[in-house]
TrEMBL record, chain A:
It is a multi-pass membrane protein. It holds the Pfam family BPD_transp_1. Residues 1-12 have a biased composition (Polar residues). NCBIfam families: PhnE (TIGR01097). It comes from the Bacteria. The gene is phnE. PROSITE patterns: ABC_TM1 (PS50928). Its main location: membrane. This is Phosphonate ABC transporter, permease protein PhnE. GO terms for cellular component: plasma membrane. It comes from Salipaludibacillus keqinensis. GO terms for molecular function: ABC-type phosphonate transporter activity. InterPro entries: MetI-like (IPR000515), MetI-like_sf (IPR035906), PhnE/PtxC (IPR005769). The chain crosses the membrane at residues 33-54, 97-119, 144-168, 228-246, 258-277. The keyword Transport applies.
TrEMBL record, chain B:
Keywords: ATP-binding, Cell membrane, Membrane, Nucleotide-binding, Phosphonate transport, Translocase, Transport. Coiled coil: none annotated. Residues 6-250 form the ABC transporter domain. This is Phosphonate ABC transporter ATP-binding protein. GO terms for cellular component: membrane. It comes from Salipaludibacillus keqinensis. The lineage of its organism: Bacteria, Bacillati, Bacillota, Bacilli, Bacillales.
Length: 284, 255
C-alpha cells in the first residue's frame, strides 16, 4: 500500500511540472485514488468483522438471556463472599505480588541488555541486533500461560514457576518496547558526546540514559501492572498465588470462597495501579 | 614559520550512493591558525570537517594530526585523538535533559575510566573546573538549568565550554551560528575567537556567512564541488572569487 502511494506521488510530481494547465484534474485524480484505497481498507475491515462474528457464533440474544443466569449464579452461589477465608488468602496474595514484582525485575534486567543490542542506533553490529530481535520476538510469541504450563512439568507447581513464566514473556514485551524507545532518541546528542572521545559505555550512560529514562520507567511500571493480572491467571495452571486458590475453590464448588479470592485480586490490581501511578509521577 | 599541526593529503569521501562529497582535498594547517571554510551548501564543507574526527568515515586519504594518521587509527586510538579535537555543531548537540554543567563535564569523558564516565562520577576538581569554564563563557548563572531551557546562543556557548574542557589542540566548528540570530551569532563567534586566542587552539570553522568569515578568519578556504577552490588570507578574497565560489556550476550538488 505504502509503496504504491509513493509511486503515485513520484509520478504526480513529474506530471505536475510537465503539464501545468491540468493541475485541477491532477488533484481530482489523486483524490480519487485516495478515496479508492480508503474504501478498499474499510471493506476489508468490514469483511473481517463479518467473518469473525460468523466464526465465533456471536449472538446478542444468548448474551441477553444468559445475563439472567449469570445474575442468579452470582447472587445465589457467590453472594455473600465468605470473608472468613481472608486469613488464608493473605499468603497467596503475597505470592501473586512477589511473582509479579520479581518477574518484572527479571524482564527489566534482561530486556535492558537485549533492547540496547536490538536498537539499530546502538547495536555493536547489525547481526547482533537481528539475533536479539529474534530472541525477543520468540519470547513474546509464547504467552505467559503457555510458559507456565511448560515450566510446571519441569520445575513443578508453585510461585517460582509463575515468576519465571512472567519474567520470560515480559522480556518479549519490554525488549521490544525498550528497543523502540531507544531507536527514537536524538542521535545528534549522542554524536556530541561521542565527539569528546567518549567510549560506547560512556555514550550510553551520559547521552542515551538521560533520553531513555522516562520511557524506561513508564514501560517497566506498565509491565508491573500487567504482571499482577497475569499472575492471577497463572495460578489456574498451577503456578501458585491467588489464581491457584481460586481454581481450588471453584473445583470444590466453594463459590463464596472464590468470590473472596476474586475481590482480593481486584483489590490487589487497584493497589498496584495506584502505587505505580504515584511512582511514575515522582520519577518522571 | 609555525609548526604544522594538521596535514590533510588526498582526502576523498564517496557516499554509498556514489556522490563524491570530497574529491581530493590537500590542506596543511599550522598551530594557532583560525581558518574559516566557506562554500555553497552541499559543497562538502560539513563532510570535510566531520572527516577530520571521523564522525564521517573518509573513503581514502591521510589526516596527519600530531604526527599520526587519524584515518588509520583503531577505535581506542581514535577516541584518544578525538578528545584532543573539540567539536561544535550547528544543532549544538548538547544532552538536553542534563544540566548545563554536566554537559560541560562531558568534555572530560575521554580522560576518565569507562565506568566513572558512564556513571557520571566527576570529582570536585573536575566540577569546579567546569563551573569556571562556564563563567568564562558568561553562563555561570545557568549552570544548574537543564540544557534545553537555555536559548540557542547560550546552548552554543555551553558547547564551546564543553570543547574547551577537553583541552584540545584543535577546535572544529560546523556551521556554529547557522541557526542563530545575528546578535547571538556575534556573541558566539566572539567567545569562540576569545577562547581560541587565550588557549592557543587551532580553529577550523565552517561558515556560510562571508561577512563573518572575513571578519574572524586569519585564512579562508573556499570549497566548491568537493574540491578546494580558494586558499589564502582574507585580503586575497576578492568579490570576484567569492562570486565564482558561490556561482552555480553544472556539477553543483543538490542540497
Amino acid at each position: 500500500m505504502k509503496q504504491e502511494a509513493l509511486n503515485i506521488s513520484n509520478q504526480g510530481e513529474k506530471g505536475l511540472s510537465a503539464t501545468k494547465p491540468s493541475k485541477y484534474s491532477e488533484y481530482k485524480r489523486r483524490r480519487k485514488i485516495m478515496l479508492k484505497s480508503q474504501g478498499f481498507i474499510t471493506a476489508i475491515i468490514l469483511l473481517l468483522a463479518i467473518w469473525s462474528i460468523w466464526g465465533t457464533g456471536f449472538n446478542l440474544l444468548s448474551l441477553f438471556f444468559g445475563t439472567y443466569e449469570i445474575l442468579v449464579f452470582i447472587f445465589t452461589d457467590m453472594f455473600p463472599p465468605d470473608l472468613t477465608v481472608i486469613g488464608q488468602l493473605i499468603g497467596p496474595a503475597l505470592d501473586t505480588l512477589y511473582m509479579s514484582y520479581v518477574g518484572m525485575v527479571i524482564s527489566v534486567v534482561v530486556s535492558l541488555v537485549l533492547g540496547v543490542l536490538a536498537a539499530d542506533n546502538l547495536t555493536p553490529h547489525w547481526t547482533i541486533a537481528r539475533v536479539s530481535r529474534a530472541v525477543t520476538a520468540f519470547l513474546r510469541s509464547v504467552p505467559a500461560v503457555v510458559w507456565a504450563i511448560i515450566l510446571v512439568s519441569g520445575i513443578g507447581l508453585g510461585p517460582l514457576t509463575g515468576t519465571i513464566a512472567i519474567g520470560l514473556s515480559g522480556i518479549g514485551i519490554l525488549g521490544k518496547a525498550y528497543a523502540e524507545v531507544l531507536e527514537s532518541i536524538d542521535g545528534a546528542q549522542l554524536e556530541g558526546v561521542r565527539a569528546t572521545g567518549a567510549n560506547w559505555f560512556q555514550v550510553i550512560g551520559q547521552a542515551v540514559w538521560p533520553q531513555f529514562k522516562a520511557g524506561f520507567v513508564s514501560w517497566s511500571l506498565y509491565k508491573l501492572d500487567m504482571n499482577i493480572r497475569e499472575a492471577a491467571i497463572l495460578g489456574l495452571v498451577g503456578a501458585g498465588g491467588l489464581g491457584y486458590y481460586l481454581q481450588g475453590s471453584i473445583n470444590l464448588f466453594q463459590y463464596k470462597e472464590a468470590a473472596t479470592a476474586i475481590l482480593m485480586i481486584f483489590a490487589l490490581i487497584l493497589m498496584v495501579e495506584y502505587m505505580t501511578a504515584k511512582i511514575r509521577e515522582r520519577i518522571i | 614559520m609555525m609548526e604544522t599541526i594538521l596535514e590533510i593529503r588526498q582526502l576523498k569521501k564517496t557516499y554509498p550512493d556514489g556522490t563524491e562529497a570530497l574529491k581530493n582535498i590537500n590542506l596543511s594547517i599550522k598551530r594557532g591558525e583560525f581558518i574559516v571554510i566557506i562554500g555553497p551548501s552541499g559543497a562538502g564543507k560539513s563532510t570535510f570537517l566531520r572527516s577530520i574526527n571521523r564522525l564521517s568515515e573518509p573513503t581514502s586519504g591521510e589526516i596527519i594530526f600530531h604526527g599520526e594518521d587519524i584515518v588509520k587509527a583503531n577505535r581506542a586510538k581514535l577516541r584518544k585523538m578525538r578528545r584532543n579535537i573539540g567539536m561544535i555543531f550547528q544543532g549544538f548537540n548538547l544532552v538536553k535533559r542534563l544540566p548545563t554543567v554536566r554537559n560541560v563535564l562531558h568534555g572530560k569523558l575521554g580522560y576518565m575510566s569507562t565506568w566513572k564516565g558512564a556513571l557520571g562520577l566527576f570529582n570536585q576538581e573536575e566540577v569546579e573546573e567546569a563551573l569556571s569554564i562556564l563563567e568564562r563563557v558568561g553562563l555561570e548563572d545557568q549552570a544548574f538549568k537543564r540544557a534545553d531551557e537555555l536559548s540557542g546562543g547560550q546552548q552554543q556557548r555551553v558547547a564551546i565550554a564543553r570543547a574547551i574542557n577537553q583541552s584540545p589542540s584543535i577546535i572544529l566548528a560546523d556551521e556554529p551560528i547557522a541557526s542563530l540570530d545575528p546578535n547571538s551569532s556575534r556573541v558566539v563567534m566572539d567567545y569562540l575567537q576569545k577562547a581560541c586566542q587565550e588557549e592557543g587552539f587551532t580553529t577550523i570553522v565552517n561558515l556560510h556567512q562571508v561577512d563573518f568569515a572575513k571578519e574572524y578568519a586569519d585564512r579562508i578556504v573556499g570549497i566548491k564541488n568537493g574540491e578546494i577552490y580558494f586558499d589564502g588570507p582574507v585580503k586575497e578574497l576578492s568579490d570576484d572569487v567569492i562570486q565564482s565560489i558561490y556561482a552555480k556550476g553544472k556539477e553543483a550538488m543538490p542540497v
